[in-house]
Amino acid sequence: MPSVFEVCVLLDRHFPPETAEDWDSVGLICGDPSATVKRILFALDPTIEVIHEAIDVQADLVITHHPLFLTGVHGVARNTLGGRVVHEAISHGIALFNVHTNADHANPGVSDALAAALGLVECAPMQPADTPFTGAGRIGRLPKTQTLAQFAQHVADSLLKTAGGIRVAGDPNKKIDMVAVCGGSGDFLLPIAASLADVYVTSDLKHHRALDHPRDQCALIDAPHVATEWPWVPVAAALVQSELGTAVSTLVSTVRTDPWTGHHVSTSE
Ligand SMILES: [Zn+2]
Q1: Model pTM?
Q2: CA of 224 to the centre of ligand 1 (A)
Q3: Cα separation, 55 vs 92, whole angstroms
Q4: Which tens digits make up the pLDDT trace of 126-151?
Q5: What are the distances in angstroms from CA 130 to CA 16, 134, 264, 269?
Q6: 269: CA distance to ligand 1 center in Å?
């Protein structure tokens, strides 16, 4: 059975930490590198609910996309959100590791998984990096032309079911062939999407950025953050499982960490 350190090395090979953004936090958050790993739980967010799930399924390593601490902290007292996660994990012998923007830039990465979930073909990075076939966002083609309305329903049906669903900006009859995607907050790729794609699927789009975007040229689909990144979680689990074989078992979290739980449309005029 591999050690925590050996699994970290494997993850660093597929998701090199040096490809993470400067502002990011990636790597081993807590845990003993020399401890043995038998079961790995993959999740999007290192919430206390995910740690409790790891305890229930007897996982000794939790791998998440989002970091626990994005900015420096003075302490990890148990009566803080992050501190409670650290205490629960350590007291149950659970190591915690995350791959964030290094997974966004990798291939297969977060946006590859999103593109695959939407059935895109002939995909390439929207913003290529120095390393061949890595970089931010993906642009791909639909196998068959759809209207924006048809494609939007396809997106809603293909992604994780959320209370918020998806939001669409553009003419519902617009013909869609080329699709740009970016898992997570993708507003930084709006100008590239405008020049390459018929529609851009991402999340966390702000009012002014969407308003200033040429939506007749490139429509927008704003999906919940978790929905655009979730397709990567089982892909990462399968990747690690295929590398480690039967020495470990990998599990995908069943905890839904989308903070939004309701959606209402006004009934008044
Ligand atoms: Zn994210």
Answers
A1: 0.94
A2: 10
A3: 7
A4: 987 766 557 789 999 999 999 999 99
A5: 13, 8, 44, 52
A6: 35
Distance 171 CA to ligand 1 centre (A): 28
Q: Which domains occur in the chain, in start order?
A: 4-103 (3.40.1390.30), 107-228 (3.40.1390.30)
Residue recorded with tokens 């018929």 = 198
Query: With 80 as the cut, is the pLDDT of residue 84 above it?
Result: yes
Q: What percent of the chain has pLDDT over 70?
A: 99
User: From ligand 1's centre to the CA of 227, what distance in Å?
Assistant: 10
Spatial distance between the Cα atoms of 197 and 182, rounded to a whole number of angstroms: 12
Spacing, Cα 101 to ligand 1 middle (Å): 8
* CA-wise closest residue to 14 among 243, 182, 231, 183: 243
Q: How far is the CA of 100 from the centre of ligand 1 (A)?
A: 7
68 C-alpha to ligand 1 centroid (Å)? 12
Alpha-carbon distance of 189 to 18, in angstroms, equals: 21
DSSP 8-73: HHHHHHHS-GGGS-TT---EEEES-TTSB-SEEEEESS--HHHHHHHHHTT-SEEEESS-S-SS--
